Structure formats: C-alpha cells, structure tokens
Amino acid sequence: MTILVTGGAGFIGSNFVLDWFKSSDEPVVNLDALTYAGNLENLAPLKDDSRHIFVKGDICDRALIDQLLATHRPRAIVHFAAESHVDRSIHGPGAFMRTNVEGTFSLLEAARAYWSALQGDAKAGFRFHHVSTDEVYGSLKPEDPPFAETNPYEPNSPYSASKAASDHLVRAWHHTYGLPVVTTNCSNNYGPLHFPEKLIPLMIVNALAGKPLPVYGDGQQIRDWLYVTDHCSGIRAVLAGGALGETYNIGGWNEKANIDIVKTVCALLDELRPDPAGPYSRLITYVTDRPGHDRRYAIDARKIERELGWRPAETFETGIRKTVAWYLENEAWVARVQSGAYRDWVSQQYGD
Ligand code: NAD
Ligand code: DAU
Known about the structure:
It is an enzyme of class 4 (lyase). By secondary structure, the protein is of the alpha/beta class. The chain contains 13 helices and twelve strands. It has helices at residues 11-23, 62-72, 86-91, 94-116, 120-125, 158-177, 199-208, 228-241, 258-272, 302-308, 316-329, 331-337, 340-350; strands spanning 3-6, 28-32, 52-56, 76-79, 127-133, 181-186, 188-190, 213-216, 222-227, 247-250, 255-257, 284-287. The strands form three sheets. A seven-stranded parallel β-sheet has the order 3-2-1-4-5-6-10, with helices on both faces. It has a three-stranded mixed β-sheet with strand order 7-9-11.
C-alpha cells in the first residue's frame, strides 16, 4: 500500500507527510515541482527514511504521472499541489491557470486511466482526494451563516477561480466517469513551515526584523483560522471514511479580524522575545487594500464533525502560541527561505 501526494514540499503538504508517518508506515510518493513555495528542507526529518520517496516533477507532466502510477501502484492520490497565494494570482494569474486547472486536469486523466485498469478491491478502494479551499464560496456579509457544502460557488480572485475550476473538474470526473473522488474545502491554515508571504508568518518575520507590519485596508476582513495539523487530521479522516463524490468543509470555528490576528502575534512576541525599542504593535502600518479583497470567510464544519467524528485538537490560542514559538526556534529556516526570489516578491508587493 502506498499513497501519492502532490505538493508535499509546500506548507500543508509537508506538514501532512510529516504527520502521516506519526500514525502510519504506509509509504508516500511525494511529487512536487519545487516552485518558490516548495522547500525540501521542510522534509529534512525524512531524509534517510525509505518510506518517503520524493520525486521532483510537475503535475502537468502526464507522462511522469503515468509512470509514477504504474511503478508505485498507489491506493490513493492526495492532491495538494497548487499555486496558493491570492496576491500573486492578482499580479500573474497565468501560473494559477496552468497548475491549478491544467495540472488538476492532467492528474485526473492519469488517475482515470490508472483506476480504470484496476480490478476488484484495488479498484473499489482507490481514492482521488482533492484538497481545496473555502475561497471558492466567495465572500460573506457580517450576518451570513458560515459556508456550508451546499453554498453556491462565487470565486472572486484569480486564485479562487482557478481552485473553483479544479473542484468542478474533480466533480465532473466523478459524475461522468465514476472516478472515486473526495474533496475537502478548508479555511485559512497557519502553523510551522508556513511560507512568509502569508499573513501570520509575514507578520512574525517582519516584526522580528523591525519592519512595518502591512495591514491591508481597514484590517477588519475576517478569516477562519485552523492549525495546519488539524487540517491534516481532517484530510486523513475524509480519505479514510469520506463518501465518494462528496465534499467536506474543514474549519475550526475561529473567525478573527486580520487586525486582531496581527495584534495577537505582536502580544506573543512582546512576551516571548521583547524588543527594547518598544511593543511590536508600533510597527502596524495600514496599506492599500488588496484588489477585490474578500471581506469574510467562515466555515460550517458540522458535516465532517457529524459524519466522520473529526474535531480540531488545537484552539486558536494554543495554535498561535505554538506557531510563534516555532518561528522563534527556527530563524535559520526563515533566513534560508528569504532568498533573492522572496525579496523580489516583497519589493514588488509592498515597495521598497
Ligand atoms: P504552498 O504554496 O505552500 O505549496 C504548494 C506546493 O505545490 C509547493 O511545494 C509547490 O512547489 C508545489 N507545486 C506548485 N506547482 C506545482 C506543479 N505544477 N507541480 C507539482 N508541484 C507543484 O501551498 P499550501 O498553502 O501548502 O496549500 C496546499 C493546498 O491546500 C493548495 O491546493 C491550496 O489551494 C490548499 N489550501 C490552502 C490553504 C491555506 O491556508 N494555505 C487553505 C485551504 C486550502
Ligand atoms: O481561505 C483559505 C485560503 O487562505 C487559502 O486557500 C489560500 O491558499 C491561503 O493563501 C489563504 O488565503 P488568504 O488570502 O486569506 O491568506 P493571506 O495570508 O494572503 O491573507 C490573509 C488575510 O490577511 C487576507 O484578508 C489579506 C490580509 N493580509 C495579507 C497579507 C499577506 C494583509 O492584511 N496584509 C498582508 O501583507
């Protein structure tokens, strides 16, 4: 038994692979193109572990996927690989269409050919697990209930439109060809190994460097935060017991305004690494808003809780404390990911 993971050198994918081996010896073939967001250092604890087979490659490369499926005969594909940053999708949507839409198409076609040739239990047990986002549902008003799986799709950014497109492909491959798929739509993740272009790690690394903490618009946009290993346990629960063709929302019932997140990070840093120059909140700087910025996301996670008994292990308070502590203990990791390419992105997005 083996699973094929795509995008397993990124933030969530690498947490998923590391977490997988805490409760399973089942080998993982990890296919990742190592874009700017992919980092083999995330997988360093598995360097000499024969259960982990890393393959550098692109999900758009159909011949490579066919070869990996034929060689390793996985019982499941867990598909994380994507371009994932909304701001980058605004500057350059092309890469998002290629990886998120064409890449998912290529993977689905390869999976369909492989699965069609399986027999008996292997065929019945095969799963294609598509990892998606709450952003496909659009933006909520303050009085709206959280997103349920039945909400209509109303994606607003090039990123969320590309993920919505991929979700529709997965749905169609199940409906038309019978491919055994499950899809999860998760809210904002945070935790160790998060690339510092996203809100929480960016605030931590900027604060430690004494740089401005850029808050878009009025900072009152709301996101629903989930500690990354809770997302991983949700994926494992759906992979093991999710009903075919179904989608499951994953979230931790943790709606927070961005400005409150930034203030929480500052307060934790004040406690754990006080700055003689004064409280870190002095660095908060309101900047021009993100174009088309979604105002509020919130996940109704009752389906996965009810049907699969999943619950998050972390509260926001325990998770954010662990996260800040991880960045303080891993400054060498941060320094290494802040390469030339990272610096180019920061100056394009925030100016010099
Ligand atoms: P990430 O950007 O940190 O990692 C993406 C990984 O995919 C990287 O390792 C990258 O090298 C790889 N990749 C990109 N293009 C590829 C290609 N063409 N072929 C092979 N590999 C490729 O992303 P993440 O935050 O870990 O997100 C993982 C998945 O979870 C994505 O599908 C994303 O849409 C979804 N998701 C993310 C969040 C979140 O808060 N980060 C929330 C819900 C869902
Ligand atoms: O909701 C799930 C999604 O969460 C995932 O699908 C995406 O892959 C992931 O990147 C994330 O998208 P967001 O756009 O919500 O995450 P980001 O960290 O970029 O921004 C979080 C909020 O913080 C958002 O309202 C924008 C704001 N923000 C972000 C940055 C980078 C700032 O105010 N300042 C910043 O510098």
